[in-house]
Amino acid sequence: MTGQGRLSVMQAAFVTLLCAPVYLAQALTTIARTERLPEAAGPRSGEIGQGALLRLLVLGDSSAAGVGVAHQDQALVGQMLAHLAPHHCVTWELRARSGVTTHGARRSLLAGAGSCDVAVLALGVNDVLRETRADSFARAYAALLQDLRQHHGARVILASAVPPLGLFPAFPEPWRSHLGRRAALLDARLQDLCARTGVEYVPFDLTPNTDLLARDGFHPGAPIYAEWGARMAGLALRALS
Questions:
Q1: Range with top average pLDDT, 9-13, 57-61, 110-114
Q2: Which CATH number fits domain 43-240: 3.30.160.100, 3.40.50.2300, 3.40.50.1110, 3.40.50.460?
Q3: Model-level pTM?
């Protein structure tokens, strides 16, 4: 790192330290005022479709758990299954929980997930919110990828981008901009990790406006889940063809 780069990092750290009380106050206020939406109802595993067997694992946080829609049919896994079932007999498992970090998702995986051909990951938001250091995030994610390949047989891994939290209307300024910078930092580390390990990085390229989000202004709404699920299913089918 150049001297200018080190200075920029130090300046950013100083600003973060200086603004920490404001960020904390805004975080607590946002948590208190924001409606706490439930995870989507419905089964977390099953079998559907016909054709060659495809074992699917969806692992992640509240977005993977379908928070923002009523039922798993409308959520990420349900939308994926709708596109995969015409081509494969899909045995699937959803391991997702609101609030989970990348490290927590790895613990969930170690607790007994089955083998998979395709693993879909939706992680990083809670690492941003909990101020996980970028190095710690990258190490946890790398270990998770290794576990998926070595112990669960994953042939295809699709890693969803860390969402650009600086664009989400649920967060007030200046906390929103801070979260945006943190999300961009972790997402850059994720992109680098995916490039080095042969994992498919899937960008978040939708504008998170209120028409696309759930009523809390934070979680995906049905339109985002539909687009996300279709994209992930298409990438999985292409990778396996």
A1: 57-61
A2: 3.40.50.1110
A3: 0.89
